[in-house]
Amino acid sequence: MRARRLRTGMRGWGGAGATAVVCVLVPVLALLLPRTHPHPAGDPAPGGRKAAHGTRVEAVACRDDEAHHRSLSPSDADGPTLAAIRARGHVTVGVDQDSYRWGYRNPNNPTGELEGFDIDLAHRIAEDILGDRNKVQFKAIPTNERISAVRSGRVDMVVRTMTITCDRLKDVAFSAPYFLTGQQVLAPKASRITGYDSSLAGRRICSAAGSTAHDRLSADRKNGRLPASADISTTVPNQLDCLVKLQLGEVDAVVTDSALAAGQAAQDPAVELKGRSFTKEFYGVAMKQGADDLVRRVNRILENYREDGGWKASYDKWLSATLGRDSSSAVPPTANYR
Amino acid sequence: MTHSPTRYTAPPTAHPPTLPAVPPQPAPPPSRRTALAEAAERLRHAATTEPGRLRVIGAALALLVVAFGAVAAVQTAERATAAGDVLHRSQPLSSDAAAVYRSLADANTMATSGYLAGLQEKAATRERYEADIRTAAAKLATAAANSAPGSPSAAIITELNELLPRYKGLVEAARANNRQGFPVGGAYLRAANDMMQKKMLPAAEELYRKENQRLDADYAKATSYPWAAIALGVAALAALGWAQRRLYLRTNRVLNHGLVAATAATAVVLLWLVVGHSVARAGLDDSRAHGVRSLNVLHEARIASLKARSDENLTLVSRGAVTKELEDGTVMDAYEWAFDQEIDKLAKALARADRLADDTAGRKPVQRANASMKAWRSRHELARGANDSGDYQKARDRVVGIGARDQSTAECFDNVDASLASALAHETDEFERAARAGAAATTGLPAGSAVLAVLGAAGAVLGIGRRLSEYR
């Protein structure tokens, strides 16, 4: 409901055509102009409205906290990318095989099929485009190959807990956001850590090397939001390695996406998410730039998925046990288009 | 070589042997003087009179021959001990260190294989893992008992002893989590593998290197020529020759039986020494060239095959969780990359082992291993293709090998492993045979040279004594 209202609002403010023209300039101008922040920090205005408002400078500046508002509006229209997929007979989707409750191959599952929230979504997309939820070929891809897999055409799309960011928008197109997450603290239930606050003083905190979590920790320790005595020197190649260190007692807390932290908590009843998530990030489906027909179609599928309860059912099945029913992640994020 | 020196010391002679073996005592000094002055007086007397000179010559000859015998005995005994050490101490210890290294790598391979197979893990894989851990612990205990406290080897052994139970803990956590269906099991297995590849295997390799240094040192000791003994032997022969020529010129007598016997005994010891040592040296060099060097290369090949197998398993366990950026900027799975490195190492080591093998019995298993390695490579490509195209199940079947029709890489790895094991057994035999033959070549030499030298010295003294008796 809310989404539809906003779409209407956007149309009222200018029209998709003009917006598209402005947005085409983004990658070019982004290279030429320094980054500017015309909006004061705080609640961003609804994206569609802002883009349509757009003076040129506004359109150019991509901010990570509104990057998820830059997808194309939904449509059922056919196009060359969709035709190619139909001709092939299956959708190829890049996924994770190792993220519990998201994209995961259960060793005890005799069929060996992947399972999780991301996998459900991929099945839904295949069902909608090809009429059969099983006409999907999963390809396991590592985190840092997600973009190259899309750009090279090795996969049609990546559904793999991928956060929509301005940097990534330079290389790939994203669908509307399908999940709200944020950095969150994970610690043993018995621990006196209460969240992302002064209770972390003197504690050893684990994060994945090169992750947004680690960047955030370093920045916050400098600006004082995180106590200076917190030890953030432990970094690992994969967020799951942090759970190993936590279980072995080599660290006191883990900071990672709440979605992934929930996956970790689901594997160990002795740990839990502490406090609320302290950043806002959105997951999106990554597709090739220029595959507008596919992007619009996926956005339509997401719209239906939210509205017919499919999204909620999948959330309840995989995530509510650890993320909770009243978490801010428990409702699908509002979709705004440019 | 002759072992019957008595033929020379008892020559057919017309005169029955007479004995004043003891040189006649000089007249008691007229007054008591200090021992020093007495000795000086004697020397003066010896230098000026012919009997005195003869006495000095006799004493010098006897001393020279006895010294030769003693040095020959000591030096050959040293070499025999070193040769025995090669055979019974340093080579077995080097083998033990190799066994520690191999069982650790093997344990890791079995742990990753078992993990990947999950519920289909074979009992044999599990048993082999447990046996590997037991072997590693037992061989570490042997190595500890043979290392000097405070030595670098002892420090390495302590480190390994400390890491081993921690490694096992990580593997068990991986297993338990995997049974529950938790992917953190994979993270535990990666942690275990990291500990093995980054800490334990390098330590085991260092221990192996240290034991090989000890082996090299023993080899060097066992094969170095006994130059001091040889020089003394030559000097003794020369002195005996000179003494006989001097006697001949002064007395016109051609043969002095005592001196001839002394010469013969000295010559026999010298010949025995040179020939015996050369044969021993040849045997030891052979054991080293064909045994130890082949063994080293085969150990290397085996380790490479074990590491390659672990990496192959972990590629499918970690499923892209860890990547590596190559120099040209391309990103690939870290374990897939490591597999390529190890299988290349295996190919190179096998090529070297093939060149070092000196008979068909040694070459055959190496060639079998090589053929299996090639099959492994091509099957691995198929598995990799299946994994890349998203058919994980097929990729796993091709690696784990549930049925024979899977054409699994497991089969190839098992064949490589079995072939390398039989090649290692063959080369160990070769080593032992050659080293044993080498060590046997000097058997009896220390005792023989001592006895012969005493006889030779006695001959020299008797011979000179006979001349002296003519001055009475």
UniProtKB/TrEMBL annotation, chain A:
Keywords noted in UniProt: Signal, Transport
Its family remark reads: Belongs to the bacterial solute-binding protein 3 family.
Q: Where is the signal peptide?
A: none
Record keyword Membrane present: no
Q: What is this protein called?
A: Glutamate ABC transporter substrate-binding protein
As recorded in UniProt, coiled-coil segments are none
Matching entries from Pfam families are given as:
SBP_bac_3 (PF00497)
Segments traversing the membrane:
none
| Gene3D superfamilies linked | Periplasmic binding protein-like II
Domain Solute-binding protein family 3/N-terminal, which positions? 90-322
Q: Establish whether keyword Transport is in the entry.
A: yes
* InterPro entries, A to Z: Bact_solute-bind_prot3, SBP_3_CS, Solute-binding_3/MltF_N
